[in-house]
Amino acid sequence: KGGSYMKKIAIITDSSADITEELAQQLGIYVLRLPLVIDGKQYLEEIDISAEEFMDKMRNGSIAKTSSPLFGTMISLWEELLESHDEVIYIPISSGLSGTYNTAYAASLQYEGKVVVINAKFVCHPLTKLCVEIKNMVNKGYSAVGIKDIVETQAEMWACLMPDN
Questions:
Q1: What predicted TM-score, i.e. pTM, was given to this entire model?
Q2: DSSP code, position 86
Q3: How far is C-alpha 122 from the geometric centre of its chain's CA atoms?
Q4: Is-contact 155 127, C-beta < 8 A?
């Protein structure tokens, strides 16, 4: 081993990755649940409302809007994970779809490099696949900053979203 110390790095994404709580636990990835506002009432995805309940509401004419993760919840999760990890990598929803990346990046500057926010420009299942690839890079000993550089300069995926109706 040559006495090298491999940093313990936590990986966080948000529920725009369409990742279930069960799969997240299997993969060892943490998920910030996004708030949904449906007919004026706020829910957290997969906590206060299931995907099936959400779809039922949409079919019945409800108006739904998404929101960025709650700032305090995001900071609390970072701080909780930094108690047991050296660094945190956060891969939020694509910056093209949400202001979450900009907010998270600005907040991360207070953590002296211990929180690395990646602007992956992914969403849905491609974001889940990217998190798995990032987990593999962490396991191979890549640094959080090195992973950010690779993802932001090389990761590219095209996805077509086709609603059933």
A1: 0.81
A2: S
A3: 10
A4: no
Query: Of 29, 41, 38, 56, which is closest to residue 130 (Cα–Cα)?
Result: 29
Nearest Cα residue to 118 out of 71, 160, 155, 82: 155
pLDDT in tens, 88-102: 999 987 777 777 888
Q: CA geometry: angle at 134 spanning 129 and 140, to 5°?
A: 130
Query: Residue 1 — very low, low, confident or very high, per pLDDT cuts 50/70/90?
Result: very low
CB 126 within 8 A of CB 159: yes
pLDDT digits (tens, 9 = 90+) for 98-150: 778 889 999 999 999 999 999 887 777 778 888 889 999 999 999 999 999 99
Q: Kindly report the CA angle at 33 between 121 and 40, in degrees rounded to 5? A: 105
Residues constituting the chain? 165
How far, in Å, CA of 36 to CA of 77, rounded? 19
Classify residue 27 by burial, with Cβ atoms within 10 Å: 0-12, 13-18, 19+.
middle
Count of other CB atoms within 10 angstroms of residue 121: 19
